[in-house]
Specification:
The complex is a heterodimer of chains A (1275) and B (147). Chain A has 1275 residues and is an alpha+beta fold. The longest helix of chain B is centred in the C-terminal third of the chain and has 31 residues, at 90-120. Classes of the chains: A alpha+beta (1275), B alpha+beta (147). Chain A binds chain B through residues 464, 469, 471-474, 476-478, 480, 509-511, 513-514, 516-517, 549, 551-552, and chain B through 14-16, 29, 32-33, 36-38, 40-45, 47-48. Chain B: The chain crosses the membrane at residues 103-125.
């Protein structure tokens, strides 16, 4: 360990605990001194410090040693008292304020990085004024009565040679009345050596008078104690002193005075010698002598066993003394005070061993006396003595701790002393490198006084920084604490300094609240100082404080705007955090030869469009050109390599802004930033590097302000308000006006009038949604760069009236309207629709006719519209009528038929191809892509069930089940038609009977039965063909029949039906015996009182196709014969002749066997043959005409008996051969013996198809159908 | 739980990944940053102590005025669970310590399991903020239980 005296604390002690010399000058002396701008004290102070005085001293035990360093503290008598608390406070405050102002210069610089701070060996960064402050603080508690080192050891009486009657002045000066109160109340010994100084001003004349007075003095006082001091020897007053010794002692009041101007070197030498002589010849020997005397005295009274016992007993007896604290108890005469003086003198003379022994002695005494303040004072000195002895560090610290806590215990009077003690303790810890502990002590001495606490905490923070390893977080925290306290005391500059230093720790921290707090406070304080620019820098840091609560955010934002307003400047901040730009959301839509009808169309995958356009667009890859064709290839190649946009057409950019706060913030003037360069029209296509090079060269012509030059491009501006936490997508556009090269560089917005934020797009970060042509070779070209080509015609297309939500089956007429805003006409239009099932192109004439009415069946012109039968071109491209050219201002309309085919969400894609008439343009063709999303709601569920009519061949019973699936709307059924020529349908019973209302309300189901008849059979059977052909295919379901029947044979119904057929086709092979139904219904518009237009009902068509009429049975038969026979059984039994019609519907020749049984029908041996077995016992609907005889059950009952009441007569087995699709008749005979009703179903029909490979169809057996024969007795 | 309490999880590089005011006293806005300051500064002490002790639970390692910092240093992932609490009620704090300690040893499997779940979650990037509301409720419930 180093010499304690060379440590900071050692120096401090050698500086501060030194003998005090009291000065008593006359006013005239001061006046003479003031000629130099100095007081007498100031004049001699610089010479009171001796670095090598070299005075021999002997210890009390006669050990000789030499004092080298020495210092005298000169104090005016009036200052020998405890300083006034308020005055001290003011002075300390002044020290701090001055220090704050001194640092003004570097307050706005960036704090040096923390790394360099902690690495530097010596803490230069610790403000130097701390030492000064600490010294001032130590002095603020000097001249206490409980310690002796501040007691003056000598007194200087100073009289000017110009004073009247100097001798008497000397006597008057040491008048007890003017002495400090401490002398008078007995705390200090007034019997101190006095020295008589005569000051002579050489400007007043020769020193004769002075020498005379000196002689007189020598006669009056002890001659050794009298001195003469001559000053102001220089006549002109311009003596320069380098370095000027008085600068550190100068008082603030007279800054301009030339210090010591009248003191020449002789004067200074004289002063030096005077003080030196005073110290070495008078004061030190006096103190030495005093120590010796006191030591003897103490030894006599206190040392030795007997004295100790006596002392102990005596103190015990004193215990009841009420007030041991008062000065009265320990006057300078008391032995305790004497010991203290002895100790302090010994300390000041560096005889630390003697000092220590005396302090120890005293310590026990005071402890026993419970004189706590004195005890603490002694402990404090013990600690310091231990330190100076460099003996036990632990003891030293223990003593300091005891002293510190004892001072604190005695309350307010000990506060100052506690702080002083703490400061010494801190220095002690620092000396031994215990910075962490030192910081702890600093923290402890930061008392209630906020300003002092602030200084102490700041010092503590530096201790943490100096600790090994440095405790940066503690450093930061204590700086912040100290900064807050500085702020409370209005020391804003100090507060800012503390926070700025703390910022070096907290910069970039993820501890959000800490970061916000520090930046916010600094920002506010800088604003307080009027440094708004710096304040803004900090305020910007806390803008995106999403983690803070709403109130904090409000506070932040409010202050932010206040400061912003005060700065009066306009800021352009890159990547301003309010709002946050979501760069991944950036999408740019540029249109080259592909144009889009709506934003929705943009988001559709390119592959969808490509597959749609495949047939229309002349393929670039296919159109291989040879090298001769280079000229024409050049431009497309270039187009291929960079993004292209067309002059005059908007480049759409979407970007999302997220508001991180919970408050809503308005932002305005959201606009794109673009750069334009003109010299990029023709460029070598095969060197992509030169593309970007050339582009960069061209940025000379860049311009950012949208207002400055609108001739190059036009920018859109958007204002919006972002609610808390909301993400809003801004739709921005830029319209290039001239050919050249355009680059989108970023987006900018205004948070307020003077706060502009902008965000520069970095090309690597951007994933462009719209993939351009495959540009594998050209990676260097930025996706934000666009080649602007000459203005082209661009078609705008709108599908009018296309609903977004529609009920399934709804049929509407729409129109596609195409507009061309350019002067150049377009031609050769083609169009393709992705879902012809939903959208159909109508005949242009349709546009003019009345919509629902045009569907109605007319007597004439049945097949007139057939020319536009789109079914023919279902999968191909629709070519617009020959010669269709769209000019400017003449929109072209094309009717479209729309039918919502199935419920669900549907995306309809339309793409229109057109060619540009002007051959000179870069692009020969363009496409317009339109996309529509539809939501189709379920309306009606229609299903058909067809079963053969048991009574007629080629007739079928059709059951139609309709359910209204809508949630609210009611639907009126209008008509049911069978599509195609093969069938006719009719109602079995009138709709009026089964469905009187005609309206199907929501959720309601309806079943009705219809008869279906093959027209072919009808034609052969009857002559009323023409009638049935006209009416038979349509059935009007609405009664009252005032409304017209719709013609299902005409477009668009027939077209849609075609697509439905294609769509509903299940099996690949064409089955002839199927029937298609079309149900047409109407939905009334919701009553809307505001609409005055006549409401047309919505037309719905539902198509059910491929309803099979055939069962899987290849052979059909029908038993026919009389049902009721009146017969007189008295004569004979009754023979009834029945006719069985057999029909072979298969394509093979069938051999059919009819076997009759007399046994019960159920027990017929079906065997285990493979093939068809009829498992259904009864047809679904038993439409057998009811017999009017109630004996059916009896008949049945009879038939259940073992013997049937009838027998089949004739051959029991009949075999016939049936050609494919032919009919034959077989006659059967049944014989009955009694009246009754008989079920003639006990026969089987077996068939065997020849040449058929289908095992299922090849052969089969079927039970007979029920056939009831009623025999009545003939009366 | 004490009337003032702030629980934080600090991951590597001193990045706070979870923060919860779990005290019973009504939350004060200005206290929030103070709590962060205290806990942040206490990391210096934790760093110091980490070399001297193998204990995972460091009780009352730092204090500021009447607020005390206790820390649980997890072994594996260099993650620290820090709790700031006031010691107004000595008994309460003592029992709280015991309970928290117990929680860490016995019941804290829940806490630590949740914690581990977070860390083992493939979607969880170490050092990023814990935003799981499930974790949040769990921690608050545990804090309430140790009242």
């Amino acid at each position: 360990m180093t010499d304690p005296a060379s440590t900071a604390l050692g120096k401090l002690l050698l500086d501060e605990i030194t003998p005090v010399v009291m000065l008593l000058p006359t006013p005239l002396v001061e006046e003479r001194c003031q000629k130099n701008g100095l007081t007498f004290l100031q004049m001699i102070s610089p010479f009171c410090v001796f670095n090598n005085i070299d005075v021999p001293v002997r210890t009390a035990s006669e050990q000789p040693y030499r004092l080298r360093k020495f210092k005298l503290r000169m104090v005016y008598a009036s200052d020998v008292q405890q300083p006034n608390v308020e005055v001290t406070k003011e002075r300390l405050k002044q020290v701090i304020t001055d220090a704050g102002n001194d640092e003004d210069s570097d307050l706005y610089l960036d704090p040096s990085p923390i790394e360099t701070m902690s690495n530097s060996s010596r803490p230069e960064f610790v403000p130097t004024w701390f030492q000064y402050f600490n010294k001032e603080f130590l002095r603020s508690v000097s001249f206490s009565d409980h310690e002796a080192f501040d007691h003056p050891v000598a007194c200087l009486l100073i009289v000017s040679s110009n004073d009247e009657d100097p001798i008497n002045k000397f006597v008057d000066l040491f008048n007890t009345n003017q002495l400090p109160p401490l002398f008078n109340d007995g705390a200090m010994d007034p019997k101190i050596p006095k020295y008589y100084i005569l000051v002579h001003d050489n400007q007043d004349g020769s020193s004769e008078r002075a020498t005379k007075i000196l002689a007189e003095m020598r006669n009056t006082f002890r001659s050794n104690d009298c001195r003469l001091l001559c000053i102001n020897s220089s006549q002109d007053g311009s003596v320069d002193h380098e370095p000027n010794p008085w600068i550190p002692h100068r008082s603030k009041a007279s800054p301009g005075v030339h210090l010591g101007g009248l003191l020449n070197n002789e004067d200074i030498d004289e002063i030096k010698n005077f003080v030196r002589d005073l110290s070495s010849k008078d004061i030190i020997p006096y103190m030495e002598q005093k120590v010796r005397v006191l030591n003897q005295q103490v030894s006599a009274t206190r040392k030795g066993f007997r004295n100790q016992i006596k002392n102990l007993w005596w103190r015990k007896g004193k215990e009841e003394t009420p007030d041991p604290q008062s000065v009265g108890q320990y006057t300078f005469n008391s032995i305790e005070s004497q010991i203290r003086v002895l100790g302090d003198y010994a300390f000041m003379l560096r005889d630390y061993d003697l000092a220590m022994s005396n302090y120890r002695l005293l310590s026990t005494d005071y402890k026993l006396d419970k004189a706590w303040k004195r005890y603490a004072g002694v402990q404090e000195m013990m600690g310091l003595t231990y330190f100076m002895l460099d003996q036990s560090k632990k003891d030293a610290e223990y003593c300091m701790d005891t002293a510190f806590s004892t001072y604190l215990r005695i309350g307010t009077s000990g506060k100052g002393n506690a702080t002083r003690c703490g400061l010494w303790w801190v220095e002690m810890l620092k000396a031994s490198g215990q910075y962490k502990e030192a910081a702890g002590v600093y923290f402890r001495i930061s008392g209630e006084e906020p300003l002092h606490s602030a200084v102490m905490l700041e010092q503590a923070s530096y201790c943490y920084l100096l600790a090994k390893p440095p405790m940066l977080r503690k450093y930061g925290f204590h700086l912040v604490l100290s900064g807050d306290l500085y702020k409370n005391c209005d020391q804003i500059k100090h507060a800012i300094r503390a926070y700025r230093n703390a910022l070096s720790v907290f910069k970039g921290t993820t501890w959000s609240r800490i970061r916000d707090h520090v930046h916010f406070q600094i920002g506010k304080w800088y604003a307080n100082l009027g440094r708004f620019d710096v304040a803004m820098k900090h305020m910007l840091e806390i803008l995106a404080c999403s983690h803070q609560s709403k109130t904090m955010q409000e506070l932040f934002i409010k202050d932010f705007f206040q400061i912003l307003q005060k700065t009066g400047k306009t800021y352009k901040i890159s990547r301003l955090q309010l709002p946050i730009v979501n760069i991944s959301s950036l999408s740019i839509v540029s249109e080259d030869h592909r144009t889009y009808g709506s934003a929705a169309a943009v988001s559709v995958k390119e592959s969808v469009w490509q597959s749609l356009e495949e047939e229309m667009v002349p393929s670039l890859t296919n159109a291989k050109t040879n090298w001769l064709d280079l000229q024409s290839k050049l431009l497309p190649a270039k187009l291929k390599q960079s993004n292209v946009c067309v002059a005059g057409e908007a480049l759409k950019v979407e970007i999302a802004f997220k508001n991180p706060l919970q408050l809503s913030i308005p932002i305005s003037n959201v606009t794109l930033m673009c750069e334009y360069s003109a010299n990029e029209t023709l460029l070598d296509a095969d060197s992509s590097s030169s593309v970007s090079q050339g582009a960069e060269d061209g940025y000379i012509a860049t311009e950012r302000e949208p207002s400055s030059d609108t001739s190059l491009f036009t920018l859109s501006e958007v204002d919006m308000t972002l609610a808390g936490g909301e993400t809003t997508v801004a739709h921005l556009t830029v319209i290039p006006r001239k050919e050249g090269r355009l680059r989108v560089t970023g987006v900018s917005w205004k948070l307020s009038d003077s706060m502009v934020g902008f965000y520069t797009f970095e090309p690597e970060l951007i994933k462009k949604r719209i993939s351009k042509q495959k540009r594998k070779a050209n990676q260097s070209t930025s996706k934000l760069e666009f080649l602007v080509i000459k203005s082209l015609p661009r078609l705008e297309g709108v599908v009018n009236n296309l609903p977004s939500t529609v009920y399934a089956g709804n049929l509407q007429r729409l129109s596609l309207e195409l507009r061309n805003s350019s002067e150049i006409p377009v031609k050769n239009l083609k169009m393709k629709i992705s879902h012809p099932r939903y959208l159909n192109i109508g005949n242009p004439e349709v546009l003019d006719v009345n919509f629902p009415a045009c569907l109605e069946k007319k007597s004439s012109s049945v097949h007139k519209d057939r020319d536009l039968d789109t079914t023919k071109q279902s999968e191909t491209v629709f070519h617009f009528p020959e010669g269709t050219v769209i000019h400017k201002d003449t929109p072209f309309s094309l009717p479209l038929w729309f039918r919502a085919a199935t419920p669900g969400n549907v995306s309809l894609y339309l793409t229109v191809y057109y060619e540009i008439e002007d051959k000179l343009t870069v692009m020969r063709y363009r496409t317009l892509r339109m996309h529509h999303m539809l939501e189709v709601l379920p309306s009606l569920d229609v299903s058909f069930n067809i079963s053969p009519c048991p009574t007629r061949l080629q007739e079928y019973i059709v059951r139609m089940d309709v359910i209204n699936r809508t949630s609210l709307r009611s639907i009126k059924l209008h008509q049911l038609s069978s599509v195609g020529d093969g069938w006719q349908i009719s109602l079995i019973e009138s709709m009026k009977g089964i469905f009187p209302s005609g309206n199907l309300v929501a959720g309601q189901a309806l079943s009705c039965f219809l008869k279906l008849k093959s027209v072919k059979t009808a034609e052969t059977a009857t002559a009323e063909t023409s009638i049935s052909k006209g009416d038979g295919i349509d059935v009007q379901l609405v009664h009252g029949s005032s409304e017209a029947i719709f013609d299902t044979q005409r477009p668009p119904l027939v077209n849609f039906h075609h697509y439905e057929r294609v769509h509903q086709k299940t099996s690949p092979q064409e089955n002839q015996s199927t029937v298609d139904f079309m149900l047409i219904s109407q939905m009334e518009e919701i009553v809307n009182e505001s609409s005055e237009l006549p409401r047309t009902p919505q037309i719905f068509s539902h198509h059910v196709c491929h309803c099979s009429v055939t069962t899987k049975r290849p052979v059909w038969w029908l038993l026919d014969g009389p049902r009721i026979i009146h017969f007189n059984f008295s004569n004979s039994f009754c023979e009834t002749k029945l006719k069985m019609t057999l029909h072979n519907s298969s394509n093979y020749t069938a051999s059919v066997r009819i076997s009759t049984f007399d046994s019960l029908p159920g027990s017929s041996p079906s065997g285990n043959k493979v093939g068809w077995h009829d498992m259904s016992s009864q047809p679904i609907d038993d439409k057998v005409p009811a017999t009017d005889v109630t004996g059916t059950s009896t008949g049945k009952a009879v038939s259940l008996e073992s013997v049937p009441p009838f027998i089949w007569s004739g051959s029991s087995t009949t075999r016939v051969k049936l050609e494919p699709n032919s009919t034959t008749e077989v006659f059967l005979l049944v014989t009955t013996f009694a009246p009754g009703t008989y079920d003639l179903s006990n026969y089987t029909v077996s068939w065997n198809l020849q040449d058929s490979n289908d095992a299922q169809e090849k052969e089969g057996t079927c039970q007979g159908h029920p056939f009831y024969l009623t025999i009545l007795r003939q009366e | 739980m004490a009337s003032t309490a702030c629980f934080m999880i600090i991951s590597k590089n001193d990045i706070p990944i979870y923060e919860a005011e779990v005290g019973t006293a009504p939350k004060k806005e200005e206290a929030a940053h103070q709590h962060q300051f205290i806990l942040h500064a206490a990391l210096d002490i934790v760093q110091d102590l980490a070399w001297t002790t193998s204990a995972m639970f460091l009780k009352a390692i730092d204090r500021f005025n009447d607020l005390v910092v206790s820390v649980y240093v997890t072994a594996a992932v260099h993650t620290r669970l820090m709790l700031l609490h006031d010691s107004r009620n000595d008994d309460g704090i003592k029992s709280f310590f015991q309970e928290v300690h117990e929680l860490y040893i016995k019941a804290s499997f829940t806490l630590l399991t949740v914690f581990v779940i977070i860390l083992l979650n493939p979607l969880y990037l170490p050092g990023s903020r814990v935003t799981s509301s499930h974790f949040d409720t769990k921690v608050r419930a545990l804090a309430r239980r140790s009242e």
